[in-house]
Write a structure and sequence with these properties.
The structure is a homodimer.
Chain A lengths: L9 H5 L15 E3 L10 H13 L10 H11 L7 E4 L1 H13 L5 E6 L4 H9 L2 E6 L21 E7 L11 H10 L4 E4 L13 H4 L3 E6 L12 E4 L2 H7 L10 H11 L2 H25 L2 E3 L5 E5 L5 H10 L2 E8 L3 E7 L3 H13 L1
Parallel strand pairs in A: 1-11, 3-4, 3-5, 5-6, 6-7
Antiparallel strand pairs in A: 2-8, 7-8, 9-10, 10-12, 11-12
Helix pairs in contact in A: 2-9, 3-9, 4-5, 10-12
């Protein structure tokens, strides 16, 4: 075929585009399907946005989001702002990591079931991916930290969502460090949900130059609409990643908003407290209804019913304007991933599930 | 070297990162170096941002920026919204185009001197690039539309900034169509500055499925701080590009702001009128001072002095808190690219230049 009749790279024809959860733009859905925070963002965020908008947007933004990086380094207790690269959502951060380290014909590794987007990012690069299946208790087999079984040097990057989705389970920092040390390549620890967990791996980046930790403001800071994420790693690694990003990848409004958000530590503590309390209630009630519930350290709960159809429950809930995530992992199984909403939202969902 | 001692793709070590114009975050600089609009964005933009911020940002934004695409299609007279893909600045759009069409070891083409970023995007992909030099009157030799001289099929994409930077010159739509028809690959017409020009190539996308037109709100809509750009092409091409973008690449605030901006047609006409009037004054006065001035159809003016040092003039202006862009194109020459500011800003710059 000529370049002009199909100008796209062969990898695009083969790939399966990532399909995010439904985002109805109208209607009155109770949205418990994409792990958004049900509460509004810290009040300082709105004020920062209005102030930035009124100051005018005719100039290019700060290319490296310095104000955000300074505040985040302070909030998280990092050695300095140069341990952070900010991006247009952690999606962009994950994209930058793959583009920086995984070339055509090379390979990335991920656990399964986990975040399918990593596979899509490999597909776009024309790279391969391989999966290590969690065991039935969501422990990760030792194979995840080993060289590829075919002995080739193609493995370039491993992704570990921690807490994982859909399970909400975590590996301890000790377990993560042990994996990073054994792996023949760098490890990205995707901590999108870490603010809802009992532990995180922030301290590991100081011990290991091949650990990259990604964070997002979408979940714990209630800013999914803002698109702001970042990666934490040693400064020489951050500098190299900076070559890949667009010059002005974060806009002036989101930099101002993100800076205000990460400065709102009290708000965060309160919000996480509320989410955790509701999560406990969800776990109890789902168990009472008859679900097998995986104890969660994230802002969602993964549950499977021993004999009812997950797909049908999802569809019945949708008819009642309640969206949860039906997830089917081929050769593994299916279930429902239900985001932690407000108490009222969660009660409405649980009441209907109890009647099914 | 082991993957762990240097985990980055070989192409990163070799590449020259793109260096954007200086963006001092403090101080009282008169900024005439990165072609920002000196006037604030349309008033409807601020109102739209405040309203979106107050509505809350806890939910994910519309993945395809539908409201923007509907309004832009109407404003630009396109057949429909599915002829548009929106992105986080036209930088992201250019990145998507390269990732979609140019693989490792393949090649893109650009004119010279023009926008150096295209080369960086090829470098990041591990791809090659080749340049066709403008002649001394900024006409583009026929070679730009021909197959590569080595006869290989590696050429996958050609970029044509129109108006060009640093020259501000344009090719007519007829000339562009003729190039697109001769080229063995698709043509991206980068129309970042087209609102300041007498012609544009919008109509060509309906005639040719291999023409992609990119636009930005950074220049004519005074929204460099917002990061919003888009590409216009036939719907089957747009659909394929959509596989590459991050799921939520535009945030809720920028979608609201961009929708309000492209609906502000009267504002745009007024703003462009002002810029053009100031541009005419700049061209006249720079000529009087002794510069050779290239007639511009953009919001900047390219000028070269027959015997004074451009670098020294740039440095002297900077000492007086006026930033212009000193550009040195190896094996071609150097000069000053001065953005069209307000009349007062431009007068301050011209006064100093006249004294040098």
């Amino acid at each position: 075929m000529s370049v002009k009749s199909n100008p796209f790279r062969a990898t695009l024809a083969k790939m399966h585009p990532y399909v995010p959860g439904e985002q109805p733009q109208g209607g009155k859905f109770i949205k418990l399907n994409t792990n958004e925070n049900p509460y509004p963002a810290p009040p300082a965020v709105t004020a920062a946005i209005i102030s930035a908008a009124q100051a005018g947007l005719q100039r290019y933004p700060d290319p490296t989001a310095s104000s955000f990086r300074r505040q985040a380094a302070e909030t998280l207790g990092l050695p300095g702002p140069d341990w952070i690269l900010a991006g247009n959502g952690s999606d962009e951060i994950l994209t930058i990591l793959v583009r920086a380290m995984v070339g055509e014909g090379e390979r990335l590794r991920l656990p399964y079931p986990s975040y399918i987007l990593y596979r899509t990012l490999a597909d776009i690069q024309g790279a391969d991916w391989e999966q290590t299946e969690f065991d039935k208790d969501w422990k990760l087999p030792a194979a995840f930290g080993e060289a590829s079984s075919d002995g080739e040097q193609k493995l370039r990057l491993a992704f570990l969502p921690n807490p994982n989705s859909p399970s909400g389970t975590v590996l301890t920092p000790d377990e993560v460090l042990e994996i990073a040390e054994r792996l023949p390549c760098p490890l990205v620890v995707d901590e999108a949900y870490a603010d809802f967990a009992e532990t995180n791996c922030l301290k590991l980046v100081e011990q290991n130059e091949n650990i990259f930790i990604t964070r997002t403001l979408s979940k714990s800071y209630a800013l999914a609409g803002l698109r702001f994420g970042f990666v934490i790693a040693q400064p020489h690694r951050i500098a190299e990643l900076g070559k890949i990003k667009d010059s002005y990848n974060c806009d002036a409004l989101s930099i101002a908003a993100a800076t205000a958000a990460v400065g709102s530590s009290e708000w965060l503590a309160d919000n996480v407290q509320k989410i955790k309390a509701t999560r406990r209630r969800m776990e109890q009630k789902l168990t009472e209804i008859g679900f097998k519930v995986t104890p969660s350290q994230a802002n969602f709960v993964w549950c499977q019913h021993p004999h009812k159809s997950h797909k049908e429950m999802y569809e019945q809930l949708k008819k009642s304007q309640i969206l949860v995530r039906y997830m089917d992992f081929p050769e593994w199984g299916d279930g429902l991933r239900i985001s932690v909403g407000t108490d009222d939202q969660v009660d409405a969902c649980l009441m209907l599930l109890a009647q099914m």
